[in-house]
Each structure stands twice: as structure tokens, then as C-alpha cells.
Amino acid sequence: MKTVEISAFAPAKINLTLHVTGRRADGYHLLDSLVVFADIGDELRLRPARGLTLQVSGPMADGVPRDDRNLALRAARAAGVLDVAISLKKHLPAAAGIGGGSSDAAAVLRALKEGWGVSVGDVAALGADLPVCMAARTTRMSGVGEIVTQVNGIPPLPAVLVNPGTAIPTPAVFAALQEQDGTPMDAIPAFADAESCACWLSAQRNDLEPPAIEIAPEIGDCLEMLLAQGALSARMSGSGATCFGLFASQSDAACAADALKLQQPNWWIQQTVLGA
Ligand SMILES: C[C@@](CO)(OP(=O)(O)O)[C@H](O)COP(=O)(O)OP(=O)(O)OC[C@H]1O[C@@H](n2ccc(N)nc2=O)[C@H](O)[C@@H]1O
Ligand SMILES: Nc1ncnc2c1ncn2[C@@H]1O[C@H](COP(=O)(O)OP(=O)(O)O)[C@@H](O)[C@H]1O
């Protein structure tokens, strides 16, 4: 048994783009997505113990499953480690399109590799977002999520994340998608700054945004409010409902986040830097 406690960080995953380019026979969708990671996320600690346990705390812990549905526990089981106490401090909203559960699972797998020396062969069995969350760096994600290719040339992007508090199950959004065969992303250039990245993004898409807005119209309000605060670009991440706005500087993002918090004190609103 190991004797040390290991800390692991599970950053928020943001799909800057999400093009749905086809559908497999098993119903899973083919994706083409530019994925970055934020400097905010969940905090995990793993320590040797008798048996496998999970304790969940933190400002966004409400509603997160504590039982075997939790992806942190499922990751430990998949790795065959049944003698670990996991403590998970949730800062990210669940079912929010920012991969909280998948990033937690990836953080557990990284910690188990470091501390217990074990790894899992097929991480995708834990969910389509697991491979990209294992990479935890700027990536082009394709296939149904299993193909991850490192992307260089994306500068750190000052941003504000906004979630209106509506949990949206991913399957419901895919089920509401009308067009399954969209075009892939354009080639990804190297960007000098946030402005040029935002300009390129304006010609790309998140194909899940229209069906998600049908399910939760408040997503449209998030996007409008980010743009009204001067965002260079505003879009939904993943299957929603979290939206991101890109800003020219961290001070612009901080001003926008403060103003949005005054307008919507009950929403989850966070200033961050993406892809740093
Ligand atoms: C949409 C994305 C984009 O990054 O992110 P989130 O919105 O979940 O953060 C991911 O592909 C989500 O990954 P993840 O949440 O791990 O998905 P899974 O648990 O494997 O699948 C949940 C359900 O989503 C649908 N699904 C997921 C991935 C995919 N490529 N095609 C799909 O059709 C299927 O209906 C599946 O039953
Ligand atoms: N560690 C976890 N944190 C949050 N949700 C989790 C976790 N493990 C399992 N879940 C379940 O996974 C679902 C999807 O959560 P999450 O990964 O945060 O969202 P998304 O797939 O939209 O990015 C939630 O509804 C929740 O029930």
C-alpha cells in the first residue's frame, strides 16, 4: 500500500468549437472540436485506505452522485484500485458542458498512475470526454472523442464562464440535434492574440448550441449578456449550458465578470484564463 497523499487538479474543459460531422451505427456522433482547459477546476486528494470511498464537498457539491455513478469512483474501479479514499472538492457545476465528471475521473487516473503505478488501457470506456481530459491540454478532438491531437499556437485566452444553473443531460441535447452531418472545422491557424482567435472562432460553430437553447432558452441570455459586456466572442461549451466569453485582457474579463455577477447573483460566473 502507498503511504503518501496525492493531490490532483481537474480543470474545466471548454469546447471552443464543436462540429458534429456524422453519426456512427451505435448512435454516437462524430465530432471535430477544439478543446482548451481552464485554470479553474475541481480539487481531488487520494490517500491509501482500507476500501474505496468518496467524500464530496465544495461550493458545487449539491446533486453530485456519491455512489458508484460518480466518475471518480468509476475511474478507481477501472484501474483496479480498491484501497483508496478519494476526497473531491467540487468547484465546477455538474452536467454543464465543461466535463466536470470526466475531468475528475482523469485526475483520479493521473493520481493513481503517479501514486499506485497503475493505468487503464481503454479510458474511453469511462466516457467520450475521458481521452481529452487525460490530455488536459489544448487539443483537436475527433472521432467520437477518442482521437486527440495536440494543438499549438493558441495563446492564453482571458475569458468569463457563465452557467445559468440549468443542468442539461448530454444525451438530451444530442437527441434534439437536427443536422447530423455538418462540415468539419477549418484548419486551425496560430493566433497572435485573443482577438485573432475570436475572429477565427466566429466562422466556426458549436452544433449543439441551437438544440441546447431549445431545451434551455436561458443559454441565449448568457450569450447576449457576455456580448453586452464586450466579449470578443461568446459561445456555449459542449452540450451546455455553460457559455464562455473571450476578452482582450484579464482586466476586461474581470470587469465583465463583476458586472454579470451583479446582474445575475445566483448564476455561476467565473473569470478564468483558457489554454494557459
Ligand atoms: C458533448 C461533449 C463534447 O466534449 O461534452 P459534454 O457536453 O458532455 O461536456 C462530449 O462529447 C460528451 O462526452 P461524455 O459526457 O463523456 O459522453 P458519454 O458519457 O460518453 O455519452 C453521453 C451521451 O452523449 C451522446 N454522445 C456522446 C459523445 C458523442 N461523441 N456522441 C454522442 O452521441 C450519447 O447519447 C451518449 O449516450
Ligand atoms: N465527479 C462528478 N462530478 C460531476 N458529475 C458527475 C461526477 N461523476 C458522475 N457525475 C454525473 O455525470 C453527469 C455529467 O456531469 P459532468 O461530467 O459534470 O457534465 P458534462 O458531461 O455536461 O460535461 C452528471 O449529471 C452527474 O450525475
From TrEMBL:
Gene Ontology terms describing biological process: isopentenyl diphosphate biosynthetic process, methylerythritol 4-phosphate pathway; terpenoid biosynthetic process
Domain GHMP kinase C-terminal: 203-261
Described function: Catalyzes the phosphorylation of the position 2 hydroxy group of 4-diphosphocytidyl-2C-methyl-D-erythritol.
Organism, scientific name: Pontibaca salina
Family matches, as PANTHER family: 4-DIPHOSPHOCYTIDYL-2-C-METHYL-D-ERYTHRITOL KINASE, CHLOROPLASTIC (PTHR43527:SF2)
Residue span(s) of domain GHMP kinase N-terminal: 72-131
Pathway: Isoprenoid biosynthesis; isopentenyl diphosphate biosynthesis via DXP pathway; isopentenyl diphosphate from 1-deoxy-D-xylulose 5-phosphate: step 3/6
Protein name stated in the entry: 4-diphosphocytidyl-2-C-methyl-D-erythritol kinase
InterPro entries: GHMP_kinase_C_dom, GHMP_kinase_C_sf, GHMP_kinase_N_dom, IspE, Ribosomal_Su5_D2-typ_SF, Ribsml_uS5_D2-typ_fold_subgr
Gene3D superfamilies: 3.30.230.10, GHMP kinase, C-terminal domain (3.30.70.890)
Keyword Protein biosynthesis: no
Active site (record annotation): 13, 129
Protease recorded as keyword: no
Reactions the enzyme catalyzes: 4-CDP-2-C-methyl-D-erythritol + ATP = 4-CDP-2-C-methyl-D-erythritol 2-phosphate + ADP + H(+)
UniProt keyword list: ATP-binding, Isoprene biosynthesis, Kinase, Nucleotide-binding, Transferase
Family: Belongs to the GHMP kinase family. IspE subfamily.
